[in-house]
Amino acid sequence: MTASPDLLLSPVNHASGDVVLPGSKSISNRVLLLAALARGTTLIRGVLDSDDTRVMLAGLMKLGVSLDRVATTEVEITGGIPFERDDIDIFLGNAGTAFRPLTAALALMGGQYRLSGVARMHERPIGDLVEALRQLGAAIDYLGNPGYPPLAISSAKINAAQPVRIKGNVSSQFLTALLLAAPIYTSRAGQPLVIEVEGELISKPYILITLNLMARFGVVVERDGWQRFTIPAGAAYIAPGLIDVEGDASSASYFLAMGAIGAGPVRVHGVGVNSIQGDVAFADTLEAMGATIVRHDNFIEARGINVAGGQKLRAFDFDFNLIPDAAMTAAALALFADGTCTLRNIGSWRVKETDRIHAMHTELEKLGASVESGADWLRITPPASLAQWHSASIATYDDHRMAMCFSLASFGPVPVTIQDPDCVSKTFPDYFKVFSQLVQK
Ligand SMILES: O=C(O)C1=C[C@@H](OP(=O)(O)O)[C@@H](O)[C@H](O)C1
Ligand SMILES: C=C(OP(=O)(O)O)C(=O)O
């Protein structure tokens, strides 16, 4: 794919205003699949309209799911299993939340399918999920490198007599995928499906999103800590009628960060105190850095210092394992801190849209920061003075979050160029339009 033209951002001084957030990617793709698997009709409102949800929708349509796009952000789905069509090729771009759950669902459903994505998706691991599905009898072949997409799935006899063991230290999406797909088995079987997590589980709040949404579709998972999950015998999805998707809490992080460094207030609408998304905890990180946060039922507001006027955020040293996506926003904010900032326990960054530890390290250095990094950590010392900032052209590595994070660098004293800004289309096609409406010179 050809890259979009560079975007030059001149220095900005102030940010304030209101943002209506696009729908949550994590909730949208889970709910689209759940509605497709559920008996009955679900109207889903507030669905994210972006690359990641478009590949999920296109995949479901190819599978013969009855799906009506009522409006850009509204989809009506009449579900039921098995899906109508098989023996098809499904392309899922670089959407982890589409690729991993669909792999599990189709492997348990029966039928022949070939699943592929963009080149980077073929470098993102899926072996731990495939191993778990094979324990259940699933027939999955690697069409390229072992442990990675593309995959070929064939019909097989599924049997969950023994607990299935799955690793969760590379991505929580493998456990999410198995949980979401489990009722395809339990609805037809006279026995429960028991999942045991082997070793450490990362990104835990995403599992809570999965369990919450499964419950809304009538499947209550019995849970013993983070170790053991039981989907009861006979458990089947039933359409809840209507689902409203929350605003995306990871997308909210960029705007809340703008309120924190551009005086504010910036108010994001669509997420609030009762959000089921772990990334709302990014507001706590901002508070620790010196921002003032107001939390409401359906909005969060940030106000803070004015870095253009010479003020600084408090430096931090945090474990970011629970909020790996919003953690990138914290890394960009380190440019405005009063000392060295450390991000720990972010090893999953290595296998996301790009190697994010490498990408962050390289691009923050271009702006004048001193950066060190290791297998699962990043340490950033901001430019010592305004004179130490360098104007830079930031590579974005086809990673939407690199583009969105580095827009925050425009609160510094130098112009910043964002390469291939349209890569934000993975989760937030309008990001730079909304950004420009909030900032003032
Ligand atoms: O389940 C989800 O919706 C997600 C889980 C996280 O991935 P990992 O579990 O791989 O960290 C996160 O980074 C991703 O953007 C969305
Ligand atoms: C890691 C991400 O995406 P994916 O759902 O493809 O894993 C992300 O959006 O930051």
Automatic annotation (TrEMBL):
The keyword Calcium does not apply. 3-phosphoshikimate binds at K25, S26, R30, S171, S172, Q173, S203, D325, K352. Keywords: Amino-acid biosynthesis, Aromatic amino acid biosynthesis, Cytoplasm, Transferase. It comes from the Bacteria. InterPro entries: Enolpyruvate_Tfrase_dom, Enolpyruvate_Tfrase_sf, EPSP_synthase, EPSP_synthase_CS, RNA3'P_cycl/enolpyr_Trfase_a/b. Pathway: Metabolic intermediate biosynthesis; chorismate biosynthesis; chorismate from D-erythrose 4-phosphate and phosphoenolpyruvate: step 6/7. One of its GO terms (cellular component) is cytoplasm. The active site is at D325. Catalyzes the transfer of the enolpyruvyl moiety of phosphoenolpyruvate (PEP) to the 5-hydroxyl of shikimate-3-phosphate (S3P) to produce enolpyruvyl shikimate-3-phosphate and inorganic phosphate. NCBIfam families: aroA (TIGR01356). Belongs to the EPSP synthase family. This is 3-phosphoshikimate 1-carboxyvinyltransferase. It comes from Pusillimonas minor.
